[in-house]
Amino acid sequence: MKKLINTVDTVLSESLRGLVATHGDILALADDGKFVRRRDVRRDKVALISGGGSGHEPLHVGFVGRGMLDAACPGQVFTSPTPDQMVAAVAAVSGAPGTLFIVKNYEGDVMNFEMAAEMVAGPVASIVIDDDVAVKPSAHSTGRRGVAGTLAVERIVGAAAEQGRDLQSLAALGRSINGRTRSMGVALTSCTVPGAGRPTFSLAEDEMELGVGIHGEPGCRRVALAGADEIAEALLAPILSELAPRPGDPLLLIVNGFGGTPTMELYLMANSARRILAGRGLAPARSLVGSYVTSLDMAGCSLTVTTMDDDALMLWDAPVHTAALRWGMQNPVPSSA
Amino acid sequence: MKKLINTVDTVLSESLRGLVATHGDILALADDGKFVRRRDVRRDKVALISGGGSGHEPLHVGFVGRGMLDAACPGQVFTSPTPDQMVAAVAAVSGAPGTLFIVKNYEGDVMNFEMAAEMVAGPVASIVIDDDVAVKPSAHSTGRRGVAGTLAVERIVGAAAEQGRDLQSLAALGRSINGRTRSMGVALTSCTVPGAGRPTFSLAEDEMELGVGIHGEPGCRRVALAGADEIAEALLAPILSELAPRPGDPLLLIVNGFGGTPTMELYLMANSARRILAGRGLAPARSLVGSYVTSLDMAGCSLTVTTMDDDALMLWDAPVHTAALRWGMQNPVPSSA
Question: Structural domain boundaries of chain A?
């Protein structure tokens, strides 16, 4: 196992300390690492809190900040956070307008956020993200997995929360965006969990895993390595088949790297995805290319499409200031002493 | 070779098309891919033009935009761009105030930018970046290599150009920043050049290459794999020995991933680097963590330190709006139709 780490046990805590020190203008680490919160807490709005296993950075901790999450609760690598983490986060960032939990659809996450919801005071609602078109029920999930579409939900609902919308509206908006979002991924290599010390699965030099999950879960099929155009078609076909967008519909396209994929290849995939969309009379109204919802060091990528509307576009474009996503704000520099 | 590509010959052109389509609000691709330029050309300021072999993305094409470069000329992977590319870029973006070439210290780059400088009309100056403390002269370079410190020069001089400083002042500023910037890298794995199809070098499972270059050039020594703290110390010791910062000096710290390194590990390295700096009474006044100056899919990272002053800090913080770096501006969304 080749990783830039000190010890397996301290990977999460050291990485979080580095994140919060680097973005001290945006983030604070609280309660001995139980959660990462916005530095400027706003208790006059609905608090958005997410979390999940680590190893998917910048998700979720890198999405904490103005216009997105108020707090994120990181579990150990690929391990759900515990309810006491969410309870502590609620106590630190939520006010009278209440709390919205954004939960990826994995059994441990769903169960622990549910337990937390029962333990906290004040109004709470939850939305469960399940955007992965590839999944069959697995050891990790019942029903579809939540993958890179989580970013779209956290950004759009985060903007709406910043604008003061109420809890029920935000929960409805989040469910609507989730319902209009589909993703699918491909792995060229496995990830390696630090505590395991060896690759989660093995792929031959001429193979790839279509429909892979963000924990290296098996996909829908293992096939021969193909070119970028063919991969983009294999990922987009089931997405577009489910979403059935019409020409002219405003689409959000996310080309997401899994952690071990260079930027050059992601932009090449973006080009392939756009060509395929164009062939069907479709074009992204907004797009994002980068490694945002990762699987440790896995090489590969996912494509996500959301069918947007005027409200979703306005919210997507609204100011955001987090470690990993930022636009639309006059800010000082994204770093600190 | 496992890469998200179609054919070896079209990697660069397809990736550039994806980049420019994704950031159509910032970038334009010109002259059949000879260069990438700012969409909003400003001929009333000194034009900053850089370039070099591809495979280091987002450098340089992802640094084109307001407050940084006016154009970037990409060569094929790890191959210098040709003088006609720079000449075409000058014709497209430079005005009466002249052109500043920012050139990484590799023989082909230096020679071709020199040839271009002789061919273009109007005032031209060049600065050569050579921030790598590790290098011994190699097949790629005479003297020190230019690596991630290039980002610091392009950002700081880019901000000064945007503010209207003249060509000689900008060249002097760039040389000053370069002289106050040192970097060193470590590779955990080799990169694989698409045209070669196999790793540039080989490392055993328990080895790393200290002082590696951004083309997978040999470093200063191949040693046993170490922990993050030990690696950070090995990289920072020669940097700090040369820069000799005093406690209280404002430092810029860049923790740069080489393309195959996950965000989680980069923030962990940032934590290690900060701890080591703190142990010497030093602290970063600004920092940046991410994969900015890459080597295709190489796993590993580099650390860069620049000793700043009030002017450099003001320029670092000034508004920037590029594909890869952006802060300080009220903008619409970083994407387009």
Answer: 8-179, 181-313
